[in-house]
Structures are given as structure tokens and as C-alpha cells.
Design a protein that fits this description.
By secondary structure, the chain is of the alpha+beta class. The protein is built from seven helices and six strands, in the order H-H-H-E-E-E-E-E-H-E-H-H-H.
Length: 201
């Protein structure tokens, strides 16, 4: 399937149908419920399972993102976890932001239950955050070796690029409701945030 996948990427007609399913949530759920070997959560474990299932390995989140945000010394980031809830707080000289995610029982994924940017004051803090943030490449130093490893299992490791600015603002920071209202009420500030994010990308 790997060869067919590469043919698709090169605009050619593939020799066979490629099946590349994201089974990470299923593995996490089985491990959390005590019904699976934790080895399945390792990179090799996922590759072996994909081979056993007859699918092309593509998704694995241990080394997924191709870039991560880095903040300068003006920003403090604090994360806490309690039960199924995870909270992250960003502290800056102009104020703080706080976001919350909750792990949803039964589907073994988490969803935002409180977005960090909800009102104009938050938008001002967010702009400060962006001014003191940069995106740094990550998970690229050993990517060539990982390509070779995954090829032995008929796969290609996926690298996740950062979301483009508008989807990032909505999905990561403000949510649909707050994002839309802020864009209507404070278009210049939202536009400046998107401009900063575009420059960093």
C-alpha cells in the first residue's frame, strides 16, 4: 500500500486501494479499559498492529507535529490535570488566559470545554502572547530514519503541519461562537492576530 500511496502523491494511478485508518483512539481506549497490551501505544507496537490488520501505518501522535509554539521569558505556561479535566494557563505581564479540555469517556478523546479567548480583554492578552511566540520546527531531526523504519512496515509517518491562522484561532483559541463574535465586534484586533499567526507560519 505504501507504493500506491506514493503513486497517489505523485499524481499517478495507484496499483491498489490504500487503507490508512487512525486507530490511536481505539488503542488508547483499549489500554485505558485494561483490555490491551500497552505495547500498542508505542511506535513499534502501532506498526506491528497495522501490519497485522493489513493496513498502511500513517497516523501516530508520538512525533506528529512538524512545529511547536515556543514563548519567550515574558510568558509563563502552567498545566494541571484533575480526573478527566486538563487546564492550561498562560500568564503574561498584561493578564492571563486559561483553557480547559475534558476527556470524554467512551470515545477516548478530549474536547475543549472552555476556550482561552472569549472577550476583548482575552483578545488583548492573546495578541501579547502572539508577539512573544515563535513556531519552532520539531520531529524533523530523525524523520529520515523514521521513514526508513515505517517503510519496513509498508507505511509512511504523517507529519502534522500547524493549522492555518483562521482555523487555529477558532479550533485552538476561541471556538466558533466567541471567534465569530470577536471578529464582528473587534475586527482590527482579530485581523492583527491572524496577521501575526500568518507571519509565524
Amino acid at each position: 500500500m505504501r507504493e500506491s500511496f506514493l503513486q497517489l502523491l505523485n499524481g499517478k494511478r495507484p496499483a491498489e486501494v490504500v487503507w490508512a485508518a487512525d486507530i490511536n483512539y481505539w488503542i488508547d481506549g483499549r489500554c485505558a479499559s485494561g483490555r490491551a497490551d500497552p505495547h500498542g501505544q508505542t511506535e513499534i507496537g502501532l506498526l506491528e498492529l497495522a501490519r497485522d490488520l493489513g493496513m498502511m501505518p500513517y497516523y501516530w501522535y508520538g512525533k506528529f507535529w512538524a512545529a511547536e509554539p515556543r514563548y519567550d521569558s515574558q510568558i509563563g505556561i502552567f498545566s494541571t490535570a484533575e480526573g478527566s479535566r486538563r487546564t492550561t494557563t498562560w500568564r503574561t505581564p498584561v493578564g492571563g488566559l486559561s483553557a480547559e479540555w475534558t476527556r470524554l469517556e467512551g470515545c477516548w478523546s478530549e474536547a475543549p470545554t472552555r476556550y482561552a479567548v472569549q472577550e476583548e480583554r482575552d483578545l488583548d492578552v492573546f495578541l501579547y502572547l502572539l508577539e512573544h511566540r515563535r513556531l519552532e520546527p520539531t520531529n524533523l531531526d530523525d524523520f529520515r530514519q523514521r521513514l526508513d523504519l515505517w517503510a519496513r512496515y509498508d507505511g509512511v509517518p504523517c507529519l502534522g503541519l500547524p493549522r492555518s491562522p483562521l482555523p487555529s484561532f477558532i479550533a485552538d483559541w476561541a471556538g466558533v461562537e466567541h471567534g465569530a463574535l470577536l471578529a464582528l465586534d473587534h475586527p482590527e484586533k482579530v485581523e492583527e492576530a491572524l496577521r501575526l499567526m500568518t507571519a509565524q507560519d
